[in-house]
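Sanity check

After download, print the first record. It should look like this:
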Amino acid sequence: MENWNSIYNNLKTFFTVDITSNYVGIILQFLLLAAVYVYVFKVLKSNKATKFIPVVVTFIIACGITFAFTPEFDTYVLLLIVIMIALLIFTMFHSEIKRTLLDSNSKHSKDGLTVSGVQLIIDETIRAVQNMSKKDIGALIVLSNENLPEGIIQSGTIVNASITSQMIEAVFYPKAPLHDGAMIIEGNKIYAAGCFLPVLQSENLPKDMGSRHRAALGITAVASVTAIVVSEETGIISIVKNGAVKKRYADASDLKNALSEYYWSDLTAEGKSI
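Expected structure tokens:
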């Protein structure tokens, strides 16, 4: 009975507080909280972590209920702000969590591809990569499952073109406007080109690995994607995955294995039978 009386008194205190005595402080608190919530939601949405938003909303509701039963309003508002900021920082800078959040939003853009269609795409991609390697034309191709942060896509140009060797080579032609950025492949389409990726800051990389390699290492560290890099200086082909160079001096067989793993992993059992 005493517990119920205590809850009743807390509610009474909370809802009968004289806001006129400190209305400026209360308004500022709510504005600050609103700004924090909007910023958190915006960051989560831009990083395709929208499935995490219900968790944040549930947390906010739980804190609101706590406020209703606790008269020390200011203390808990400060605690909530600290927890929300800590949650945001932890989410944005922890690579494994970010990778999981991005993967949870992947849409399997390879649905509907046929065996012959996949084989043609693989052949065309290998032909383009090898041609650029022979000519020392730099290139960075990212194989994505629609699990890249929206900001990366927006940094480039939406192409939405069929995957052919001519198209790939045209994008990375040295005088082409999009050649410096990354090409994003999603399923059977070149979705975007000229995209800027997060660059890995490390002094341990070989000197012949330039900005494209650093970008490939950076994006594969935070998203489950595979990157194919052609060095502009040496023409060497590298395959990058999980934040590391998996294959240096990659040949046609290595490229085929990487592309096959990307395409065949999500195809149905019927599609795998050749």
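If your output differs, re-run the checksum step. Summary of this record's structure: The chain has a mean pLDDT of 76.
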